Fold this sequence. Notes:
Helix content: 40-55%
CATH topology: Rossmann fold
Amino acid sequence: xxxxxxxxxxxRLLRPPVDLSRYGAKSGSWAVVTGASFGIGKAYAFELAKRxxxxxxxxxxxxxxxxxxxxxxxxxxxxxxxLSIDFSSHDPAIYTEIKGTxxxxxxxxILVNNVGVSYPYPTKFxxxxxxxxxxxxxxxxxxxxxxTRLVLPFMIRKKRGAIVNLSSFSGIVPSPLLAIYSGSKxxxxxxxxxxxxxxxxxxxxxxxxxxxxxxxxxxxxRHPSLAKGVCMPETVVKGSLDNLGRExxxxxxxxxxxxxxxxxxxxxxxxxxxxxxxxxxATRRRAIQKEEKESKDKDKVQ
Length: 302
């Protein structure tokens, strides 16, 4: 126990951050970030620019991307480019378009696969629509896999690079009433760890990032809270990049890491899963009540 405590203190409080020059920082290399308009993706784009990368921002909303790119260029004096892509599309032409843009960049040091989608609120599997199921699997699994396939050859040629994949606490702990999302993030986690072992000899590392509750549009959480275990996107990003290449699975915020440790090493998995089920049921109940109230208020106005 003493060893675990001392190791944790060293890793999370005392160990100096990784020098990202090993991945091309401050040498003209590019970072590619998906889902870069808001939340964690936007925070990655800013932090990578701050650390000396040019940044290609990819997301669906072109206007938002251009606004973020303009702010990054003004603040950090690096190059940016934007690409408006709807990753929910099954059209293979979108990846042809992405490949063409990547070829113009040539030197790609970091890929951040952040784009993702979840449930509107927790729901049993058969009560989810096939449309939502398709959307989650296409964006969370297919897009991440295809982006990795496109970018990895650039890194192999340079014999350096890092692939950062946003998994989730739900990807390493089964989360009932979020079955499709939880399963998709488990894929991200396992895929990332396999990549790390397969390509380390090529100078390439992969990192599975497994945050818990984070302020974002997806989570609908608006404020950080230590008591509720909610952190800001910037906390996730800084903790991720500071340890890039050291750990193939990393929960960037110490509170989330503590919760992960408790769920895997201390508490029985059946107990944890039951607790997560109860939380999901309560979250679903509140969401439905909110929908019903908003619907009644709308009817009154009409």
